[in-house]
């Protein structure tokens, strides 16, 4: 019998530790499928962040290292510079990448490091129990914005994809979502493009993935996907912000 | 025999690192070590299979070191006191992950932004861990430009041998001074293979993980105990010190680095006045040469610790002396270097 669907080799057998309805699992799988399709699993080094995906090393079936909070792009820089023939990716959440690690992501992009960044934006801190993230929407209630995010004192949610797109050295920047099958297919294409760019030595690539956090949003998985569609996508438009053609 | 060349301390460290096979350097400019980052840029940017990055911060620099060290290459960063404080997070991760690397601290006056003059106020930070958690660096304290060279090369070997970060703890004076140095041919050392843990892609084997955490306390305790075994071995095998005239001295001075150089002048001056002074100069600050100090304290009952701080190494000296002798202290700080006359005057108080 022909096998038409299976677990990507780039994922281990370890069951995910993520909450029901969380999109981390889908994002992991898409990255793993892309690594399989390029046949680069055995030449890949992944960098996991601090946050819910701190355990990503248990799930990706390749060499992995855990970074300090926010520092994954700096670690990836060190790995890629000393092992330029390997495929290096970071997997980071919004607290990690858009708050504590802002300097590291901006400068890795600005140096045009030939790495791929998978950036999970779920508008909240998941691991620590639902505090405000730099990406939390205006009015969104979290543990540390109990009356809703007030832009007067807490600022507006940061659009990382747009921000990094202003950098000349960033080769590929996109934003995708995982809330429905059509978006998942687009997300997979975008992740594949990002890794393709690295494989061709063309420089920095980042895919921002809009994801759900049903547990800390206080919604069911289905409600969470709907909330993402109705609230996050209008503020965080999907699409490609920077493509290789734009880079001279 | 290699020829002697005149070199600035900071640049000599750079050349020594390259001689030791270091091809990767990540750093951030700070006085008084900026000649070192400039030297590495000048050399490494022209070398094949090498990389130099001026990082956006010391935080990023130490994490680039962490990444490169994880692939098994020899890698170094350097900074001065405030920059080293910023690196502490990364150094703690590196120590927990047991990846070897070399960190150079050319100390300046502190606390805070302090100044840019030589100081020894980072002794506690360097020898007691510095960041969070139970760990130590291998800390080497050079006292001349030649020793900056020799100890930098040794630091790479020791880091690899023990899979532990090693620190060169110098100061602004050593970094800025020029002396004649020799890059001697070194005997080949047998070092453990890195194959079992490096991240180079998992072809033909199970993936390697470099994971500086474990949420299970009993596992994390075991990880700590494994690392602690290395410190015991370091204490047993790697202690280094220089001793001068400790047999029949009236008083023993304990000093390291720049201060120890000054004390050597003090010994000469004191001799002319008929005073017999001995010196114990720790070369490894961790592991600390506690045995020789303890042994000497059985015979000689007066010690003076001199530091460019308000008293940090004195705590280790007191622990080693363990009440067997009187331990006094003289220190200058904030970037002031004690003069031989000052020290001579001070030690006369105890004779």
From TrEMBL, chain A:
<dbReference type="InterPro" id="IPR051457">
    <property type="entry name" value="2-oxoacid:Fd_oxidoreductase"/>
</dbReference>
<dbReference type="InterPro" id="IPR029061">
    <property type="entry name" value="THDP-binding"/>
</dbReference>
<dbReference type="GO" id="GO:0044281">
    <property type="term" value="P:small molecule metabolic process"/>
</dbReference>
<dbReference type="GO" id="GO:0016625">
    <property type="term" value="F:oxidoreductase activity, acting on the aldehyde or oxo group of donors, iron-sulfur protein as acceptor"/>
</dbReference>
<protein>
    <submittedName>
        <fullName>2-oxoglutarate oxidoreductase</fullName>
    </submittedName>
</protein>
<dbReference type="InterPro" id="IPR011766">
    <property type="entry name" value="TPP_enzyme_TPP-bd"/>
</dbReference>
<dbReference type="GO" id="GO:0045333">
    <property type="term" value="P:cellular respiration"/>
</dbReference>
<keyword id="KW-0560">Oxidoreductase</keyword>
<dbReference type="GO" id="GO:0030976">
    <property type="term" value="F:thiamine pyrophosphate binding"/>
</dbReference>
<dbReference type="Pfam" id="PF02775">
    <property type="entry name" value="TPP_enzyme_C"/>
</dbReference>
<feature type="domain" description="Thiamine pyrophosphate enzyme TPP-binding">
    <location>
        <begin position="59"/>
        <end position="209"/>
    </location>
</feature>
TrEMBL record, chain B:
<dbReference type="InterPro" id="IPR009014">
    <property type="entry name" value="Transketo_C/PFOR_II"/>
</dbReference>
<dbReference type="Pfam" id="PF17147">
    <property type="entry name" value="PFOR_II"/>
</dbReference>
<feature type="domain" description="Pyruvate flavodoxin/ferredoxin oxidoreductase pyrimidine binding">
    <location>
        <begin position="15"/>
        <end position="187"/>
    </location>
</feature>
<dbReference type="InterPro" id="IPR033412">
    <property type="entry name" value="PFOR_II"/>
</dbReference>
<dbReference type="Pfam" id="PF01855">
    <property type="entry name" value="POR_N"/>
</dbReference>
<dbReference type="GO" id="GO:0043807">
    <property type="term" value="F:3-methyl-2-oxobutanoate dehydrogenase (ferredoxin) activity"/>
</dbReference>
<dbReference type="InterPro" id="IPR052368">
    <property type="entry name" value="2-oxoacid_oxidoreductase"/>
</dbReference>
<keyword id="KW-0560">Oxidoreductase</keyword>
<dbReference type="InterPro" id="IPR002880">
    <property type="entry name" value="Pyrv_Fd/Flavodoxin_OxRdtase_N"/>
</dbReference>
<protein>
    <submittedName>
        <fullName>3-methyl-2-oxobutanoate dehydrogenase subunit VorB</fullName>
        <ecNumber>1.2.7.7</ecNumber>
    </submittedName>
</protein>
<dbReference type="InterPro" id="IPR029061">
    <property type="entry name" value="THDP-binding"/>
</dbReference>
<feature type="domain" description="Pyruvate:ferredoxin oxidoreductase core">
    <location>
        <begin position="249"/>
        <end position="342"/>
    </location>
</feature>
């Amino acid at each position: 019998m022909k096998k038409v669907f299976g677990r990507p080799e780039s994922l281990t057998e370890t069951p995910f530790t993520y909450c029901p309805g969380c999109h981390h699992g889908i994002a992991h799988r898409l990255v793993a499928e892309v690594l399989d399709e390029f046949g680069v699993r055995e030449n890949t080094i992944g960098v996991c962040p601090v946050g819910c995906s701190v355990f990503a090393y248990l799930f990706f079936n390749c060499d992995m290292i855990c970074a300090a909070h926010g520092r994954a792009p700096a670690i990836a820089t060190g790995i890629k510079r000393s092992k330029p023939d390997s495929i290096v990716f970071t997997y980071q959440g919004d607290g990690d990448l858009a708050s504590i690690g802002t300097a590291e992501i901006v400068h890795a992009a600005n140096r045009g490091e030939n790495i791929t960044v998978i950036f999970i934006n779920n508008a909240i801190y998941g691991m620590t129990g639902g505090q405000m993230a730099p990406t939390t929407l205006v009015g969104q209630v979290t543990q540390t914005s109990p009356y809703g995010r007030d832009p007067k004192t807490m600022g507006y949610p940061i659009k990382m994809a747009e921000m990094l797109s202003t950098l000349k050295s960033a080769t590929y920047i996109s934003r995708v979502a995982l809330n429905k099958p059509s978006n998942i297919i687009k997300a997979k294409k975008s992740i594949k493009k990002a890794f393709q760019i690295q494989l061709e030595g063309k420089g920095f690539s980042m895919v921002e993935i809009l994801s759900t956090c049903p547990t800390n949003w206080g919604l069911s998985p289905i409600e969470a996907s709907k909330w993402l569609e109705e609230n996050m996508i209008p503020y965080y438009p999907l699409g490609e912000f920077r493509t290789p053609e734009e880079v001279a | 025999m290699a020829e002697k060349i005149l070199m600035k301390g900071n640049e000599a460290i750079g050349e020594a690192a390259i001689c030791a096979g270091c091809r990767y350097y990540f750093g951030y400019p700070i006085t008084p070590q900026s000649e070192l980052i400039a030297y590495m840029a000048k050399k490494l940017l022209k070398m094949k299979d090498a990389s130099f990055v001026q990082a956006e911060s010391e935080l990023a620099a130490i994490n680039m070191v962490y990444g490169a060290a994880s692939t098994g290459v020899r890698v170094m960063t350097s900074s001065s006191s405030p920059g080293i404080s910023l690196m502490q997070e990364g150094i703690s991760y590196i120590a927990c992950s047991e990846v070897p690397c070399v960190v150079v601290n050319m100390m300046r006056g502190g606390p805070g932004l302090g100044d840019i003059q030589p100081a020894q106020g980072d002794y506690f930070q360097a020898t007691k861990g510095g960041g969070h958690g139970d760990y130590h660096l291998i800390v080497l304290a050079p006292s001349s430009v030649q020793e900056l060279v020799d100890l930098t090369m040794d630091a790479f070997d020791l880091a690899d041998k023990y899979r532990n970060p090693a620190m060169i703890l110098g100061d602004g004076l050593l970094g800025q001074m020029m002396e004649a140095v020799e890059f001697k041919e070194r005997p080949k050392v047998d070092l453990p293979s890195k194959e079992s843990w490096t991240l180079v892609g998992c072809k033909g084997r199970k993936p390697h993980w470099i994971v500086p955490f474990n949420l299970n306390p009993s596992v994390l305790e075991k990880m700590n105990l494994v690392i602690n075994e290395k410190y015991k071995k370091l204490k047993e095998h790697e202690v280094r010190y220089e001793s001068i005239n400790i047999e029949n001295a009236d008083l023993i001075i304990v000093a390291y680095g720049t201060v120890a150089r000054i004390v050597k002048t003090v010994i000469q001056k004191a001799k002319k006045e008929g005073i017999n002074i001995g010196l114990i100069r720790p070369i490894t600050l961790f592991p600390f040469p506690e045995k020789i100090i303890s042994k000497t304290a059985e015979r000689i009952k007066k010690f003076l610790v001199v530091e460019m701080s308000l008293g940090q190494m004195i705590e280790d000296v007191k622990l080693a002396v363990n009440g067997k002798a009187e331990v006094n202290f003289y220190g200058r700080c904030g970037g002031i270097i004690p003069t031989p006359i000052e020290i001579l005057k001070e030690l006369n108080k105890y004779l």
